[in-house]
Design goal:
Strand content: 15-25%
Distance between the termini: 8 Å
CATH architecture: 3-Layer(aba) Sandwich
Radius of gyration: 18 Å
Shape: globular
Number of helices: 9
Order of helices and strands: EEEHHEHHEHEHHEHEH
Number of domains: 1
Largest sheet: 8 strands, mixed
Amino acid sequence: MQPEKVSGVLIEQHIIHSDYLGKELTIDFFLPRNVAEPENMSLLLLNDGQQSEELGLKTIFNEGYASQSIRPVLCAAIHTDKDRKFDYGVAGYPDYLDRGNKAALYTSFIIEELLPFISDTYKVYKFRERAFAGFSLGGLTALDIVWNHPELFSTAGVFSGSLWWRSVDQEDPVYSDDKHRIMHQVIRAGTYHPGQRFFFQCGILDETMDRNNNGIIDSIDDTQDLIRELENKGYDREKDIFYLEMADGKHDIPTWSRALPVFLQWEWGVR
């Protein structure tokens, strides 16, 4: 079945006050034009929305719609601010420096304030699918929210995810990859959620750190280890998980801009 013919995107910006976070947040909305049946749209939440222009998000969506290679997606790109290292993280589990101590409040903002705002503003009360994606620490946060709310989100997109996020400093003699990487422990303690899918992107040039001296940078090790945790829960590596490793990929916006269309077509591509 061919997708609806979408004639590009319309961009709207809204400022939403969050009682949970005690501040206002700016959201850029990328709306597919001329969608005949709004209930056929999917929803994509994107962390670090202040980078939308540099990512070329408008162009990415316009090109996807022009080629009819992706189905209609309403994208909400959520700006962050100076509190990024505290709003983002794993809800209920700050890292060893107490970063991420507002992640639970950010999760409440997403679920109890942003999602209702989107439904009320755009009169779409049931989306075909809901996904959440982000970059670096924003990717970790998106994964945490999707994992813990399978009733709301079906897919996580994690680009150069901060999956090293840990409860003990890696320089501490007691530090162990097996015990102290927070998101790995959350998934290990959780349960399989039928229907959920996970997209991971890493670049060979993401970083230079190699704490276990195995010749593989930490970001790739951390990502592959987390994929194994998902497999141990019952997720199918071929059907439920997509891993994109970019030989020239760096921990930067140009790399993520090139990876985004791969994610969009994996999740909403015409098949």
